[in-house]
Please model this.
Amino acid sequence: QKEVEQNSGPLSVPEGAIASLNCTYSDRGSQSFFWYRQYSGKSPELIMSIYSNGDKEDGRFTAQLNKASQYVSLLIRDSQPSDSATYLCATRGGSNYKLTFGKGTLLTVNP
Amino acid sequence: GAVVSQHPSRVICKSGTSVKIECRSLDFQATTMFWYRQFPKQSLMLMATSNEGSKATYEQGVEKDKFLINHASLTLSTLTVTSAHPEDSSFYICSARRTSGTGETQYFGPGTRLLVL
Model:
């Protein structure tokens, strides 16, 4: 059974700090990895996608992928109160289009 | 990013009635769309994969006769909750699969909140 594990949190960081969100996955066949942000009562919004080992940076966000360790992370630099949300990690295997989601990590950025 | 819309955003209905939810990809064509359900403080649960021009593929435990899916065009998929009951009250979210040269991504609609009385 394919599983994606995330620490449910809540993760609390002060404004301006770096927030580090982690995710592990069980399916070694996973080829695509995504981070979605979901505000309370809203639908998920794509933040980052990463497909190969290493780091991928986009503004204040950096995704890191290590396929050997089956680990993907999201770093948020200069955290803002508006970053407070649930962050969902998702993986996709190569043979189908379905995403497997983790349960999400609740991030709270304190002013 | 790509735009996916859903309609209605919120619906309240009586037990036993049917409710139709529309999902549209506004700026790209989507041969594949997905329907999810999310209960409060829970993660997204995939209900079914909607394929343009063919039957939907349902996840284990999802009743295909209760949750009717139609994907008649490359930009529209509909989910009909038939004979809705209070336990069907949930947040229903669709997503559309978009492919590009760099890979493929799912973009989510804003969701439909269903309350069955």
Observations:
- Chain A touches chain B through 19 residues (CB under 8 Å).
- Residues 4 and 102 of chain A are 5 Å apart (CA to CA).
- Chain A is about 0% helix and 60% strand.
